[in-house]
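Fold this sequence, please.
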Amino acid sequence: MRITRDILLKAARTVVQQRTMRDKHILCVYLTGSVIDDLPLLGGTADIDLIFVHDSFPAQPREIIRLTPDVHLDLAHHDQSIYNQPRELRINPWIGSYLLKNPIVLHGTQHWFEYIQATVNATFNQPETVLQRALPLSETARQTWLDFQLDPQDPDPQRIWAYLQSLEQAANALAILEGPPLTERRFMLQFPERVADLGYPGMASGLVDLIAPQMPDTDTIMHWITDWKTTLAKVGQREDCPLGLSPIRHGYYTRAAEALANDEPAAALWIILHTWTRAIISCQADPESLENWTSCLTELGIYGDHFQNCMNRFDQFLDQVEEIIEKWADRYGIDLSTLH
């Protein structure tokens, strides 16, 4: 089947209609994510991101539902109370952006969504509010770096996961100055454009150096993809498999990485590292998977004896992030100390 945006929208509407007919506690449903951008496909796969708002606490926070081998639904379930404090949503990088980034409302009662959206939008794009979304990410990334310095240890999967999360936070602190936060699959594809818009294109190569100080060739990446798939398959068989690593999502990740490996290797590596590390943690150090993962990170130059070098480069990257944010604030005459 040829996947188009219209087909994805039709599937979303059908699911919403079925759910709202059965469940009268659903107050609102809106569509967000890559379908909104008309860029749903990557490696021939796509997900449909739907946010269900309930008038009471939902039974589960998230569902992953297979539609076809190439398409799945990613349903987030929110309690209405999340939306009771619009000021908090204005400084929430994720929900605030979902509300304002051209969402498509597929179900709503009593103009609920329009009211919430208008209230959040009131000061959402004011420089002070933008900084209130960016600063906590930068500060959290810096705290991770500081924690590593105060408690130096050899890297392990948990430590690498914290490192990757801090890279994501630092990069998104800059991305948010120009728009919504970057999502997982297109993270390294869209970051260069964001920092170029900010006037700091060199930050893109700086981030790549923190992911892959020793960039491999395509054949090596494809070999790692084989090992990564094996780990994902093992995790998918576990009863405690994280929902985000459900077998339904494996092709969504692996086919995207395969499609990017030749022309956008850093983008492929981000997807691989982000999901492989989570899978390794979930596998509880399955020896074969751990060995393959360790070999990959060692060859990339972010493991073992190389890790402290990464920390030194990350320190410099964070210095630049902090300086860019300070200059951005100065442009609007904002004293950052007043925002804490």
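The longest helix spans residues 307-331. The radius of gyration is 21 Å.
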